[in-house]
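worker-03 picked up job from queue 'complexes'. Input manifest follows; two sequence lines, order preserved.
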Amino acid sequence: MSDGARVDTPEQAAFREHCRSWLVANHPGEPPVRLPQSAIEIMNSDQMDFLQTWQKSAYDAGLIGCDYPEFCGGGGHTGFQRIANDEMIRAKTPILPNVIGLGMAAPTILNHASDELKAELLPRLLSGEDIWCQGFSEPGAGSDLAGVQTFAEPTGDGKWLINGHKVWTSLAHFASWMIILVRTDKSHKYDGLSYFVVPIKSALGKGVTVRPLIKMTGELGFNEVLFDNLVVDDRMRLDELGKGWQVAMTTLLFERGAGNLDTPRAGGMTSKASFTTSVGAVAKLAKETMRGGKSVSEDPVMRDKIMQELVKEEGFIQTQRRARVPELTDHPMRIPLQGKLQVSEMHQRTANLAMEVGGAKGSLYLGDEAALEGGQWTLGYMNSFGFTIAAGTSEVQRNILGERVLGLPKSK
Amino acid sequence: MAQPKNFGYDADAAALKSQAEKFFNDRLPVDQLHALVAHDSTPEREPVVDWKPEIWTEMVELGWSILTVPEDKGGLGLPLVAVAGLIEAQGKAACPSPLLETLNVGLVLSHCDQADAGFEAILEGKSVALAFADQHGSYEPSTTQVKADGDVLSGTAYFVQEAGKVDALLVAAQSGQGINWYWVDKSAAGVAVQQDAIIDLTRDQATVSFDQVSGLKLGSDACAAFAAAQPAIAALLAADVAGAGEWLLQTTVEYVSVRKQFDRPLGFFQGVKHPLVNVMLAIDETKSLAYNAACAYDCDEPNTPKAGHLAKASAADTADFSASRAVQMHGGIGFTWECYVHLYFKRQMHSKALYGDAMWHRAKLADIVFGPAAA
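worker-03 finished. Artifact:
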């Protein structure tokens, strides 16, 4: 976990300097294509190629995977990723495309795979040469994740046959690999689950079919993945047979930003470099938007609404700051487990507020030159539902907070 | 000065807070608090001042009342974030005392030009409250309804907090040369304290009139001094709200974990669980913004006024939300006088409007973000 209260050691200070000078010399500059707001909305190979080239160059410069062991292709350091992240975001770099690999697959593999598998998979994951996706959700298993029915059957010669249907699989259309939660025993709901890594790209047409789904925004980005007698070697299993649920909890812990290792993170640059979902951006829009001959920022009702959101945004920022001060927190997971819920709902409210500020212009979308910020607010509002639904819906997040932090009885 | 990332909340601050938590638990657990302040349920009861002066005497001996006296005036030199921890603990215990008001006066005096006599009185153990609000409840000295003729005060101050407990008042009065702060002993001739009939049983409030009362001028430009102290006052009150909110949350969590309906503890149901999580999120927001405002004040940051308004805007809403959900989730028992929840419900209702409600603080925030609203 990053620790903003900590001062850089001499080694860390030198590394920060390295990041800064490297980024000045090697920032990829304005992209040749419209970039999406996040990696899970990458639609085409032009976008993907540009972003993969960027991740590889940042990896080669030592800015990605810094805190992973050297035999896994990492830098072997401690507390360096936090610094590289600070500097990449400060330099307004492109986003990293292998977001599921870096944020979920890598820490899961590090915690649960054999050293052999770590050495085999992690270097190309960290460099972004192999894109990863996550096979958890199914048509019949959404919030009730342990209900997955995709089945792995032993063949008797150290291999498994996988059959089933995964959905809402972001990045599967670019992915080389998938982390997958499967059922290996139908008689136990939780203890009947196991966890594998399986090939996607190299198995297309040989047991794997990827079908893109079109989102409500019109963008591509997530898929259904069908498994029809895919053969997988037993050495691709993570942890013990029947321990899939525990391994999945590691993945989810990192997915929700509550893991104990900093996820490589970059960003700040999109196709419109000035655009971010923030209350400050809404305030700017309000100043620039005229209604009835006056700026929206002079309307007392809208001023109050925007300030309500400012209180929430600043409260969240200060709560993240407080999370790093143990004397000011009661339960160690109380703040970390709020992050995903708070960020996703905050972005949703903020984007919606921007559309309200924009009035009639809020009706215009990407294809209209007069749209608010080129339609980014509208797109962002719709995409925000991806974040309040994926990775455990807001409703599931509230269950988790109520049960794990407040100690309320489990809702299942 | 840039803010330290840990809010400047150090081991001394943590020690003070845990000392305070233990103190309040020992001296006035909630059943004794209820017996002390909730002995008369009559809605039209005569206002009384229920508190334990002997607890206050101990608090003074512990040095808590002088925590906002500047170090070079004889104070202890602890940062405001440490004081916020103490007040959070007091809020969680809902302990009736003149501590917060005395600390507020120390903060205002810290921005006055001739305040030594006031600091000396606080160092001697005197308790004191701010007297400046007008009859409409404007917590700004600019509209004070007390006038000064030389050092002789006449008029009325409204919504004076803890007036029934304190030894003295710091009064904002309009003189021929602007509005000044004056120290007045409550026992001075011409001071009349009329207790307000307030809903909060853990505080007292009064309308205080002054009839030719001689005061001691401690500061000129009362508005500037108050404006400089206001972010700190907001931070401390927000800490109180966060503490009281946490009591409401934890008490409600305990209740819904035990109380069964439909063969399940109430907390099993998402209709109960999710609102309580939302209360937790609200408390965390207020607590974080309280310590942020205290830290900004300690560091004398240009953003300090903004941080103060953020803290109290959040606190006012959290006060309301934490209180209402606690009663609602307790169900029928939560609606009774015998259930302790109403003590904190009423304390939060009082805190909500005290020193500016959410809408007022958001209007001030908007003035900072957008520039003043057009008239």
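worker-03 released lock.
The beta strands of chain B are 128-131, 145-149, 152-161, 168-175, 178-185, 191-195, 205-214, 216-219, 260-261, 264-265.
Chain B has a mean pLDDT of 97.
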